[in-house]
Structures are given as C-alpha cells and as structure tokens.
Amino acid sequence: MNSKWPLSRGEDSGRGGGKTGGTPVPGDRGIFAGADVGLGITGDKNQVTADGDVVNGDKHETNTTTVYHYHAAGAADATATVRSSRVDRQEQAEQILVGPLNTEVLAPILRRADTLLPTNPGQAAGLYGDIASNLHANGFHGHAAVMQSKQMAALQAAGHFVAAAEMAASLAVASLRSGDYDRARSLAGDVAKLAFKSDEAGEPRAEEVRRTAELLQAARESLLHPLGDLDSLRYALLAGSAGQDPAFRPVLVLLLAEQALAVDPDSVRELETLLSEAIATLHSGGDDGDHTLLRLRLVRAHYDPAERHALHQQARQHRMTRRPAALVFAREGRRLAEQGNADAAVEAYRSAVDAGIRADLPQDAADWLYSVRSINVWYRPWPTDLDDEHRLAQALRATGSGRLLVRARHPREKALSAVVREKPREAITAAQRWLVDTLVTGDWTGELEALRFLADLYKDNTEAGLAASYYQRAGDADAAKKLAASSGDTLLPVGPLQGVPWRVSRARAAQLEAQADILDDDAAVSFLGELLDMARRLLSGDLAESPRRHLLHQVLSSACSLAPRGTLEQAGQVLTELVEFKRTDRDTAWLAISERHPHLAFQAITKLLDEAERDSYDAMAALGQSRWVRILTSPSSPLTATEQAACQTRLVALADDNSSPAVLALSQVLPDHPTVQAAAQEALERILFRPEPDPHTTSVGDGLMSDAFLVCHLDESSRRRCADRLTEIASDRREIADARRSALIGLRNLVADLPQADRTAIYHQAKPFILGEQDGSHLDSEMTGTPHPLSAVRISFGTASLRGPALKLAHRAAEHDDERHWVRENAVALLRTDVPSDVGDAAHVLAYLPSEIAISVDPALLVTHNNRIVRQAGAFLAVSHADQHPQTIRRLAEDPDHTVRRTLAEVAELRMKEGPVHPVVPEVLERLAEDVRASVRHAAVSALRAS
Fold it and tell me: Where is the stretch described as Disordered (predicted)?
C-alpha cells in the first residue's frame, strides 16, 4: 500500500536551527507548512510550540552537542496550520482502516525505531519524532501522542533528561493552551520527575529544568483550580524574568491573563508588568505565527484605550490579515456590547463576520451572528426579523468547520458530560475553559451561557458567593434573587451597581432586594441612595436600559424594599418620586415605611390608597393585611383621629365601587357600615344558590372563603344557613378539592359566631375529614398533587388532602377539654405527614391551643422539625412555658431560619405585655437585638421596650 505522507527528515530536517521556509499555507495565517511556529529557539534551548497541542523532535549530531528541534505539525489552536481542503478520500479510508502506523511508509520507520531503542535510544527518539510529526500533520493526534511518549522514553533511556524534560514541558504548555488538561497534568508530572533525575545526574542545566517544573506546577494549580485562584501562577511568574525563564514564559503569561479576564476581569490590570514584559519579548522575537502577541495585546486592550485604538485601526486599515482582524473586530464588538453601545457593537460584529467568512472561520462567524441577535434582544426593541441572525448562522455553519480555536473536544461538551457523570470538579474546569474560549473569540452569547453554567455549578456545590458573582455577570436576575433568598443569613457579595452593563446592574439590584433584611443599617442607607440616584438617571434617560425598562422596574422594586431601612429623607423620596411607576411591588413597602417612620405614615397610606384607586393589584392585596387594619383603627396608630377618619372615608368610596378587597378591608374597619352589610347579603346569596357540581365544567377560585368572611357580619340565621350550605359543599365528593377546602376554611370563619350546639355538630362533622375518610375529590388526578414531569400542561391546584383545614376547623369548633385533647393528638399525628400544608396547619393548631392543653406537647421535639412553621409553633409553646423550656428557647434563638427567630421575639413581646416572664426571655431578646437580620432586631427591640 502506498502512502503520500511527507516526512520532516529530508530537506526540512537538515535545518540547523531557527526558522525555515516552506510552501505557503492556504489562508492568511502568515506561517508556513511544517515551519517552526511559536517562541522556539534551537541549540541548548528547546523549540517550544506556543500554540497547538503537540510538538515533535528531530535529532542531529553537530560536533559535541546533541540538538533537538521541536516543531508544530498539527492544528490545535487559533493559528494551527491549515491543511489543504483537497483530501484524497481513498487514501484517507485506507489510513483509517489499516491504521496510520501500519502504512508502508511509517511501519518500517516504527520497526526501525523499536529495534534501535535498546542499542541507540537517541537515534530512536529522532525517528519517533518524525512519525509523530507526520501523524499530527494528518490529524492523528492520539497516535502522535503515543509516539511522543515513546520519544520521551527514548530520550530518558539515552540519558538526555534535560532534553526529555524540555520536550515534555513543550507538550504540557501546548496541551494547557489547547485545553487538554488531562494530558497537561500528566506531562507536568513527568517534567517534575525528569527534573529530579537531571539533578541526580548532575546535568549542567538541571536548575533550568527545576524552574520549568515549578512553572508548570504553578500553571497546573492555577489554571485547573476549581475556584479560579490564580495566585500560584502569578507569583511564580513574578519570581522570574524573561531572560531566565523558559521561552514559553509569554504563553504562560497569556494563559494567566486570559484566565484572569474570564474569572475576575477587574484583576487584569494588576498583570500589567507581566503583560508588558511578554509583549516586549515577543516584539523582539521574530515570527508570531500563533498570534500570542495579538492575544496579549487584546488582553491589555481590555483596560488600555490606546492599545485598543491601535489594534482597531490596524484591523480597519487592513494592516493585518483577515484572521487576526476578525478576532480584533469580535473582541471590540464584545466590549461595546458590555458597554451598552448596541449600534457600534453590531457594526463591529458584522465586520468580524465578514472577515471571518473570508478567513474560512464559518463556525466563529456563526457565533458572532448569534451575538448580534443577543444584542438586539438585550438592547433594542424586538423587531419582526429577530431570528434572521439565527437562520443565517445555521446556514453558515453548514458551509465548513473552521474555527479560531480548534479543540479535540469542545470544552462545552466536556463540561456537560462531566455534569451528567456527576464530576463537578471536572465540570468546573471544563466550564472555565469554555468561558475563556468564548472570551478569547469574542463570542458574547457563548460567554453569557458559560457564565450561567458556571454559576449553576457553583450553586450546586455550596459556593454561593462565586455563584452570585457569576449570576450577576450573566445578568440572570431571577437566578440571583433565588440564590440570595435560599442563602439564609449569608450575605452574598454584590459588586457596584453603576458603571456596569445594565443586565449586571439589574441582577445585583435583584439580589439586594432579596437580601435587604441582612444588610447592616449603614449599607442599607448607602445602597438605597445609589438606587435612588440610578432611578433618577434612568427616568431622565442618562443610563443605558433595555427597551422594556427591565432595569428601571428592578431598581424601583429594590428601592422600595430598602426604603423602610433608609433615612427619613430617603423614605420620603421613595414616596414622592417613585409612586407613579407600576410593577415595582412597592405596596407592602408603604405599610413598612409607615411603621418604621411614623412621620410618613399618613403620606404612605395616602399613596397606597391612590394606587388602590388605580386598580393596582398589589395595593388591593395590601388592603387586607392586619397591620393596615391596625393603622386605621388602633388608638396607638401613627395616624391622628382625623387622618384615620379621612382614610376610612376613602376606603368606603373604594368599597362602594364593588371592589372585593376593599369591601373585605372595610368589613374589618367598619363592620356595621351599610356597604358591608349589602356586600355580605350578596355573598350569602352566592353561597346559598351556588350551582350543583357539573362534571363537564369546573371553576377554580370561586370566592367561597371571602364570601363566608363577609357573611360573618350578618345575623345568626343567615350565618347558620350559610354554614349548612358550606358543610354540604365540603362533603360533596363531586366537587374539586380546591372548592371543598375553601368551604372548610369558610366554615372556620363562621363557626366562632354560631351557637354551641352548631359548633359541636360542626366539630363532629370535621372529624372524618381529619382522619382522611373524606379524601378523594373530583379531578384529583388531574388538578392536585405533583404533575407528571412529562405532561404538557403542568398545573397543580394544591394537595388533595383536606385534613389540615378540617383540623383547624375542629380546633375552632371544639368546646370541651376532651375535644381539644383529641384535636391535640391528631395535630401531633399530622406533623408526621409528607403534605407541607397539612403540617403547617397542624403546627398552627398546636400553637393556639389553650396552655393547659398544649402543655403536654414538648417544644424541644418541635424545634427539630424541618418545617419552619412547626418550629415557629415550638416558639409559641416554649415561651408560653418558659420556666420549663429555657434551653429550648435559647436553641430557638439560634435557629437558621430568621422567621423562627422573629416569631420568638414577637411571642415574647405578647407574653411580656401579659405580665412577668422567666429571665431567659429577656436574655434571649438581648441576643436577638444583635441579630444579623434587621426584622429580627426590630422585633426584639420592640419586645424589650414593651417590658
């Protein structure tokens, strides 16, 4: 079988050192086929490939010095040699079927090398290098790696430990650059072993090999660090210099700088000394076929406007070839996209696409088209042709596989595979490489995807701080908010709100909103001031923003969350400047402001009523809160009697407009008002004349609970008729579970005002529900529980269980101690169920049982429950019997859920108002007054004042 593979030994292998000529490579990479590329020198130093994943060695005897040349022979990175597109498929098929090492050309050379290995390992090393070179040139990188291993073994057998170490170091650096971290790790270990052997052998250059091993060890520790710690490599490089270190030092500087740019962009400026040294070294070093110099300058351009302008001008004026020009344009497009300059960013990316297509980079050009689409999504009104770039990218990817960075395996695929195999460390390392690659090529869309992927990995592996930073950089506000909400009392890092892309500002503002309660008072005031400033600038158009004003809405929402923590002046600014804008979820903030800043109470309540009159859903929902009722009715309200009367008048006007939330609120403020009576009569009629269940038609949310609440304000006869009808609905299995549950809750609202005989009857009617004998409602399999994960419509209207609402009904209806004992025992039993709502209902019942009934329930058992509502019930019971449970109270003060600690303080305040308490209660309150949560601190201080 014939083979047409050229061998480097021959006319190319006769070069004594330095660069050699050759035939030009198709394309415009500016290097030659088979030429030495990178930062190599010959003679006593090794020839280093700075870009590519392999090198090979040619051995030549010159006088007394054995010289090895290591030169790139395969494509592995941004400037790897381009092979001709004219492929002989028949020859290729023969090579694959027979095997590249079994061809008539290579097989004899391999046999000769294996024969020479025992007697002349130095000559065998050269032959192995020739084979590796040709294997790489034809794409057989795995087979070439085997030959390189043989070559290094032969060099060691010949006693050339320094030469073997230099070769291993060259391969390790190339592997690091190409993302082959497994091989880089192995080769770095080989260099360390060879350094030890060369030192033992007393070779003159042993110290150089030891320094090489130190650099590679530092590079391995930093570039493969799961948390992105780059200090090892940075300190190792700073400890040396270009004149003393190996020739691949600039490549390590490049790897360090690009990794820093991906992990912590603000830290890149600290590497200026190393960058300047590496750039100066390459400027005086001749060829830069792998574009290391260009990439170093692009890193510097991240913070140096002069460097950025120079590179952009060179690309614009066609003073660089298309491949590097495409890279410059893409990096400029990424920078402009980060700054929010959408028009200029799109123009730069389109220039990159044009240069990329002409330079045979269709895959990167497709990525840049997707970046154009992302810019349109983030910064512009969505056009009708939003997906044009997507369709163009798909068509472009079908035209070829050329990329700036050629990888044996894409790091994205490797990261996803590692996640599936549950290898988080490997997944993070691959994802970091993926992020670096997208940043190097200016793939903005891919960069955002890699950032989100890394954030998810860190979140799932208990690194919430790093996850928060990556979510912020990705602009994923929802994920940042959820992470902050799930982080308990841990304050996650937040970067600056201004001077960053709007998506980053939005994510950081969302995280602040979720953690407003954890901030200390000074930080809350500072952040609120910054948010108010941002709101003004956004409203005046001074800040870049999304077309749908996402940042403005988030800033307003965050400002309202922090407003109660701010100064009186800041709270007043929130009330006066932010009231006209919707979708800020600020309505509950008005009530919080009125409590924290009594001087602003009337103004806050007025703003709340203003929004309710504009049919704001959140404002209407806030009307039904108990603290709202206290403000309008309590003698201790921050409002004067005149202000209370004015607010009540406005509430009456709202209720007269048939607003259901306003009517419910008015029924608590002025229960005898004619509007309330009329609405209650209508509610009674709706309940009494509710249609019978229809198996073909089902309604959800029919207002049974609110109607029953209004009926409480009618006469006894009306209440009894309503209770009878609700009992029928609750007992009718033809009804859906949601309707039956609503009927039970409505009954609980009514039962307290019914005669004793009726209450006893309702108590006995509730017992079968508590025991589970009434479970099983219409459409339970379709509407309740957890939907099937593969179902197209995943809707759930809660649990099918009715035990919890029935237990609360029985508790309200119980009159005798034996009935209450039965309720207590079933409440304890219900704590062991796996239905969270039932567990919460059972805990509520235990908390509000009479003290003499609940005394047998040990709070120490409740505070170990994983449900926070159960632990809150434990706080009720423990404080009510503080003399018996001092240790339990102290334990509750350390509960990881702040709502439990706050409940403890609130219950303590209630008990302290009733009379003297056990000394452990004020002791715990003093501790809670220093809590990390502002809400807990305020509750504890309020309780201490009540004493």
Answer: 1-31
